[in-house]
Write a structure and sequence with these properties.
220 residues; Rossmann fold; 7 strands; alpha/beta; 19% strand; globular; seven-stranded mixed sheet
């Protein structure tokens, strides 16, 4: 049985030449600097030391690949949207990320990470619009849900989806709900972890989409 804790750092890609070419399926994670991406990854796999959090936003300059049970990769993209990073560096990161996302047959899903307390930024909306234009499946993970009340989190959940739909598709949607779901998530309380685990495992093909019991066992 798959154990999500059976994960290791595989490599840091500084250029497209560094990307793995072994055909293993991949799920990637992206979000603004300081949105809680590292904490989400650590909580997801039940490890405290997998993805390192940095006190300096925008510090990570490469794409990190983590090998999951030698059968798949979880991929950590550099944080974006941090003003103190030079424009030249942002362009460099943008080219690297675009190269990763373009024509990547191994990519099964992107987890786009937003802070539930705030409306999506222009950078967030640009990313989501680009994913939709490239037909890349994605799910929204709304972090830091423990920092607001349940009522506020629920209202913001709806608000974020409304903003995303309005800004990226003109409010019209015709795709499957599974590709448009937003999951409220807290690294502190564990809210949303099991649902996100199931979403990731299904995307990787480890369990059938209808086998919720199996994915629940794998998420332990």
């Amino acid at each position: 049985m798959l154990d999500l804790r059976n994960i290791r750092f595989a490599l840091a890609a500084h250029s497209p030449a560094d990307f793995p070419r072994d055909g293993r399926p991949q799920v990637c994670f992206a979000g603004r600097s300081n949105v809680g991406k590292s904490s989400l990854l650590n909580t997801l796999v039940g490890r405290s030391d997998l993805a390192r959090t940095s006190k300096t936003p925008g510090r990570t300059r490469e794409i990190h690949f983590y090998s999951l049970a030698e059968r798949a990769y979880l991929v950590d993209l550099p944080g974006y949207g941090y003003a103190k990073v030079s424009k030249g560096m942002r362009r460099q990161w943008g080219r690297l990320i675009e190269a990763y996302l373009t024509d990547n047959d191994a990519l099964r899903l992107m987890v786009a990470i937003l802070d539930v307390r705030h409306d999506p930024s222009s950078d967030d909306l640009d990313l989501i619009a680009w994913l939709e234009s490239q037909a890349i499946p994605y799910v929204l993970a709304l972090t830091k849900s423990d920092k607001v009340s349940n009522n506020v989190a629920a209202n913001q959940h709806r608000r974020i989806l409304e903003v995303v739909d309005s800004e990226t598709t003109g409010g019209k949607r015709d795709d499957a709900p599974s590709e448009r779901r937003a999951i409220r998530f807290s690294a502190k309380t564990g809210e949303g972890r099991n649902e996100l685990v199931r979403t990731v495992l299904r995307a990787l093909g480890f369990v059938p989409a209808t086998d919720s019991a199996a994915s629940e066992r794998l998420s332990q």
